[in-house]
Amino acid sequence: MGQHLLSIDDLTNDEIEKIIHRAKYYEQYHPFIRPQFQNRFVANLFLEPSTRTRFSFEIAEKRLGAEVLQFQQSVSSIIKGESLLDTLRTLESQGVEAAVIRISEEGLLRKLSEKVSLKIINAGEGRIEHPTQALLDLYTIRKYFHTVKGLRIVIIGDISHSRVAHSNAALLKRLGAQLIFSGPDALMDDSLEGTILPIDEAIQNADVVMMLRIQFERQKMNYISSKESYRAEFGFTRERLKYLQPHAIILHPAPVNRGLEMDDEVVDHPQSKIFEQIHNGVWVRMAVIERALEGNLRWESLSNKEMYGIGISGFREIS
Amino acid sequence: MGQHLLSIDDLTNDEIEKIIHRAKYYEQYHPFIRPQFQNRFVANLFLEPSTRTRFSFEIAEKRLGAEVLQFQQSVSSIIKGESLLDTLRTLESQGVEAAVIRISEEGLLRKLSEKVSLKIINAGEGRIEHPTQALLDLYTIRKYFHTVKGLRIVIIGDISHSRVAHSNAALLKRLGAQLIFSGPDALMDDSLEGTILPIDEAIQNADVVMMLRIQFERQKMNYISSKESYRAEFGFTRERLKYLQPHAIILHPAPVNRGLEMDDEVVDHPQSKIFEQIHNGVWVRMAVIERALEGNLRWESLSNKEMYGIGISGFREIS
Amino acid sequence: MGQHLLSIDDLTNDEIEKIIHRAKYYEQYHPFIRPQFQNRFVANLFLEPSTRTRFSFEIAEKRLGAEVLQFQQSVSSIIKGESLLDTLRTLESQGVEAAVIRISEEGLLRKLSEKVSLKIINAGEGRIEHPTQALLDLYTIRKYFHTVKGLRIVIIGDISHSRVAHSNAALLKRLGAQLIFSGPDALMDDSLEGTILPIDEAIQNADVVMMLRIQFERQKMNYISSKESYRAEFGFTRERLKYLQPHAIILHPAPVNRGLEMDDEVVDHPQSKIFEQIHNGVWVRMAVIERALEGNLRWESLSNKEMYGIGISGFREIS
């Protein structure tokens, strides 16, 4: 029985570990795996524009051998007034087993998940959840650090409107990270536990600097007086690279507003792992789709020895 | 030699029976069939918006192993003023063997079919034809009744603008059904043979209640004074469920305007087979695509005994 | 190591010959070749509308067994202000090995090609380059003539705004053709070497008549006083068929503005090879994609004897 992925909170620590483990298996062996999901259908329903995440899921699905249906709102019968529930029930009647959904409305996915038998994968939900992004960020962090426990992870930008921030905060807090937030006061989120610091100090203290995208489309821009002043006060500018510790890594969910939240020199800095995050997203999503289609992931696919042998350590130390 | 499917009238009774038979074969054995049409190309040209039917065809094509090209008017060179004939001739020059077309203009498909060698499958044509919908409705009806002959089939709603009604009326009349129509006087179609009854009486008399979608986009809404009054006078409301015979089934081509032509309680009623229709559509369309690519369908793929053994009877009794 | 295809000028004569040779191999043997690029990804990024060329590439890619990603500007995150460079770096991080790009901006593709590791195939660039169109035109010409050397090739229409004209002129000139241009004075291009003749005389002298599409979308129409006067003065009308030599062939990149640059009788004339060009495009693009994914094409796949045996001669005589 396949499983939904609606929220980071739905995953046990053991399940998180299995997804990371399985993703590493796919990264390592993808040229050799057989297309295990041939003749099985997954639909990608992106009700908000997306290229990167949509392609990441599509590549993951196709590497697994699944058949992919693309749903684009502008050319769909949602314009006929059809509800999303009826669309999902239609898809499952047609034999579709999983739906990857991006949606701006918050809370709808969970309600839908109780009424359908196909499995829903949350690919971005309003301001609240983006679980596969948090999982791929975790995967990337784990490539550079033995464990998340005790890591000082700084999240910088518009915390309050960011689903990336919310899913990551939930995941990393649970795994024992020490969270620090930075950004305009009006864009902080009181509901999240953590320290708030000015950006210079935040970077100085960081093992991981997680920058957020300024979401022009999802917030009132009157929080921000001007791009120049935002960059100067809250952006990761080239001048601020001097605060970065030599072992720290820089993350961003992409696409970057270059020259706003990050300067080119920071995006392209050797300690920036932005394109590696994108690379890692494919393997993590392969694991998430396998979980949606097959249910609980198996441990036995890759021995601990193999995992250690390829440069990742600490994989069983999560708690 | 593959064959067009432009109209129900083009099919002999024997061909209809073969399509139903073959669809049942695909429903029964689809997990085990090999992808027989690998490296063969089908194009889906939906010149009117569609999700359900487009996905149904796409899934059918992919289950057969065919390669699928998606054509969307908004991003195509029809905006360059290219004619549909030149588009089809282009596609056939590129090796495409069949085109599934939805179009509002009536009569064009037949003219085109005489000038191209690729095979055209009508996926909805103006107000006049939707042959695969009628075939999947027949398939669904045949799952519940031994034969169509003598069945009282009630079609309710906007008959005059409905291609579903026209294709179904042509098919079911020919197979011996007794047709009853119901709906606003202005939306009846004098050219169709059958009895016209008020909705309560129509439902009381029905073995099959076939509801139609109110096509906001294809008619002048001034036929309808208000949604509330339409629902009260012509809709299948929860109150009217009391008229439904215990053996009768309810069909609708979907998507349903819930609360207009049908109440939620009717859509989700145990005797409603709406999502089963959608399910059946995939198998019927697999047969239609096979016919387009290969020509006449074979009988021998499934024995009569097998067909009877899986709960369908009367399959050879058509006349 | 795969290779970009940005411009005809990047190809050596030997490489051109190999592409033609390989295309013939695919035309001859495509039903029997195995899908050699399974689990390898190509993205089609058409930033200008296209049906014909996009489908041609998609079919070529799928015939090779590659996985295809479709990128449509209207639903992409380019609307988020993401640069094309970041899109390409994203795609290559996700495992995409080649990108087929159509773009109106001139010169950008070359700059991008120096910054990415995936291979770029130019599918139409502003007014300057459309190398696969020129290659498929060459392939078509070579089916009817022993060699390009000495052929009188007439290009008629809006030379100055046509990327088809520019790529073809560069290719055919180099291979020894004698170029003649015809069309409105304001739409000639002084930078191209060749004779300018009135259309009647041009057709009389032609071994190959290459008509261009009037690009309403890419030029100021005030060059043209009216459609009627353009057709009369510069179009290939039915009346001008009398000037056509019996051995000459007519080409057009399509889609044709019927009744403007060409009359129906010319499009559908036996000496018109327009739909054969479209057919040939698939094989040529298969060779170009193989080159992008694998690097230098092999000679050994088809013997000269086989090539001659199937009606093409002069294949090694290019110089």
TrEMBL record, chains A, B, C:
BP GO annotations: 'de novo' pyrimidine nucleobase biosynthetic process; 'de novo' UMP biosynthetic process; amino acid metabolic process
CC terms in the record's Gene Ontology section: cytosol
Alphabetic keyword roster: Pyrimidine biosynthesis, Transferase
Function summary: Catalyzes the condensation of carbamoyl phosphate and aspartate to form carbamoyl aspartate and inorganic phosphate, the committed step in the de novo pyrimidine nucleotide biosynthesis pathway.
Residues of the Aspartate/ornithine carbamoyltransferase Asp/Orn-binding domain: 149-289
Residues at which carbamoyl phosphate binds: R52, T53, R102, H130, Q133, A254, P255
Residues annotated as signal peptide: none
Molecular function GO labels: amino acid binding; aspartate carbamoyltransferase activity
Stated name of the protein: Aspartate carbamoyltransferase
InterPro entries: Asp/Orn_carbamoyltranf_P-bd, Asp/Orn_carbamoylTrfase, Asp/Orn_carbamoylTrfase_sf, Asp_carbamoyltransf, Asp_carbamoyltransf_Asp/Orn-bd
Pathway of action: Pyrimidine metabolism; UMP biosynthesis via de novo pathway; (S)-dihydroorotate from bicarbonate: step 2/3
Cross-referenced Gene3D superfamilies: Aspartate/ornithine carbamoyltransferase
Ranges of residues in domain Aspartate/ornithine carbamoyltransferase carbamoyl-P binding: 3-142
Reactions the enzyme catalyzes: carbamoyl phosphate + L-aspartate = N-carbamoyl-L-aspartate + phosphate + H(+)
